Model the fold of this input.
Amino acid sequence: MEHGYFIAQLFNALYYASILFLISSGLSLIYGIMRILNLAHGALYMLGAYVTYTVVVEWLGINPFSMVLAFISSILVVGGVGMFIERVLLKKLYNKPEDLQLLLTFALIFILDDIVKMIWGAQYKAFPVIPGFSIDVMGFKIPVYLISATALGLLVGFVLHWFFTGTTYGRMIRAAAYNPEVASTLGINVDRIFTISFGLGAALAGLAGGVAVPLYTASPGMGGDAIVYSFAVIVIGGMGSILGAFVGSLIIGLIRVLMALVFPVFEIALVYMVMAAVLLFRPRGLFGREVRGRK
Amino acid sequence: MRNIIDSELASIVTLLIFLAILPTSLSTYGVRTLSVGLLYGLAAVGFNILYGYTGLISFGHAMFFSAGAYGLAIGLVKMGLDPVQSLLMALGLTFIVAIITGYLSLRHTEIYFAMLTLAFAQLMYSLILKLRDVTGGDEGIYNIPRLLGSVESYYYLILSIVSIMVILAWWLVRTPMGLSFQTVRDNPDRARALGINVSRVRLLSYVISAYYVSLSGILYAPLHRAITPEIAYWTFSALIVMMTILGGSRRVIGAFIGGLIFIYINTFATGFTEFWQLIMGVLLAAIVYLAPNGLVGFIEGVVRRVR
Amino acid sequence: MSGKELVLEARNLFKSFGNVRAVQDVSLKLYSGEILSIVGPNGAGKTTLLNLLSGVLPPDSGEIILYSGEGRMEITGKPSHEISRLGIGRSFQIPNIFEGLTVGDNLRASLMTREGMLGVFTRRYTSYGDVEKTVIEVSEIFGLGDRLEVRASELSHGERKKLDIALSIIQNPRILLMDEPTSGLTHGEKRDMARLITRLRDEFHTSFIVVEHDLDVVHEISDSLIVMHEGRVLAYDVPKKVMRMSEVIQAYLGGEVK
Done:
């Protein structure tokens, strides 16, 4: 295999990993703070993809300015939808059995899928061209977009990490996550924190969709795959850990893209085998902490 | 197991008698639809053993349905085996899938368990898609032989088997084993403190549940005569979850009724609008908020209040 | 105490959670038919100790030894369902029952775990008639005889507490570990509970380790008393002697000591 081709594929892998990381860190965040597994997370990713597609391809045309605006739109729209979901739908279920929350997010997958279909139709939406220019690496053209997207992912990762460990607000959120009752007696508005956290998690998924859509087409149901692989990321990396999401995404990104070159049938199986291995030998995931879950 | 004439058993038997008589007033198409309803009912009852009685949500039960259906179909069509051999193959395949996925998934908290079942089911779906030579890939397997002459006689075969399995479920949840399932559902820590091996109980429940759903798939293949990878896709798992909750997860008959009527709701919704997923989603959400114990649970609540 | 058989012994148990040393070098000896109470301020490590003895948590170091007709068995680190099957029962501070089942089914479930998983086919230990008899008997001892068909989620706090204990008792354990059996009960209910514990000891020869806050109850029922403070054993003797020790009084500044 030519070196250039390999490098090109490596960038594809990093790009994919970046997207997975954004989705997974959002999912992990929501779970880590609120103990809710948001099954509709993939649908939120899908929504973000459609929003970016609309802003760029249908409205403003492809240029760096519109891309940035589109990303911001995806973040705001999907984040907003997330906050709406939390405040209006999920809050009512907090004192009820956990199953019901899970089932509701499950129902949301169906609802969001069809809402997207209603607004945008069922056909695939693809970018006519990849934004930006390409640079030449050993005879292969690598779109600068891939590199910037990967860099964006990294940046977001650092910002999240810094936010939760370095800022007061971030630490407040973690306190609320660890023990909501005690936190509220300390004057922390736990309700608002939950709403914002869910919105933040959703926004990350939305951003992921925006980043993904120029290369991966938008379709209703694109959330399905996304959610399953982010589950794999979380199982491998550990729930509630941003570093875990980072490492997990990297592992899966590399496996999927590089394996697809060598042994396509095996590619999917390998992902799940790695997952199974982690489950057997380190059930908590590579960086997972003692999850304050039941049983 | 006490010698009480259980009102639930009476309801189940009544319903089954009704279902035995019903085909006389239905067309062949109606009987076919009702057959699918019975199979959905069977799958829901099986799923409910794990969900309603043992307290675990799996989003991957489609993998058992497809293990059964594909196992049988591959045996009959691709390998030219006779029905009994194909049946054994399907049951064997189910066992392997259930034991492996169960063992890996059950050692985790419920959330992880839900995630893992979904992931494993998708893995199975991908495998089915990729292994074209064995499974026919996205085209699936067709020309599955009908096992009995007519749709009507096949219906009665299905009804007999489903009746046995549903009554078996009714009995099972009242045995010491069934009670231990429920203790694990209600309070696993307390169950452990009373000597119940919670992990083993969960695995047992999982496998039994898997076999119910697998049997549903096995009977489905000759009915539908063609199977495609869709039956392994997570949306089908979702439907199983929905049916069970719709009918009511507190009772065996609840799950059964949920499966029965679901085919009609689904057919209605898909015929009514292309946005049937929205309807399904809203329906599920409505149940979550308004009637978490499903139709049967709701009725029971009303009856209790009237008394 | 001397001359009676030893049933359970704990030696030098240690347990820490991160920097918190919950249990530090705790040893105790429980004899047949003895009621051993453990008292101490909140956070003293009492519940953790109970968790160690019942197998909910493994100790960092130390041993737990069970004595029976077959000799001694080391049970350190065994999981809770195995410990339960060895005849050590456990009741909980916050009543831990099976909410979705009726009172009767709660008790049946507890009793029938002895059937094993395949008890549905083998019915080795008890016929179903015996199960019913025992369920009725035990429920009446606890005053729940007329509540058998009520779903557990609908019981009052006092009734739930009793059911929690009944779940353990119906298995006829040799040793019962109780975590605050009288918490949340009215004065009258506390007296009933105290009497119940002594009656169980007298009728079934069960040995008890009882973690308690109510010193009146402790005073009434205990044969021996351990005072814990910050994970350590402050005092361990007959109640009369312990109650007079100055360290104990200090640790209990503000507590009611007669």
User: Anything to note?
Assistant: The domain at 2-20+32-306 of chain B is CATH 1.10.3470 (ABC transporter involved in vitamin B12 uptake, BtuC).
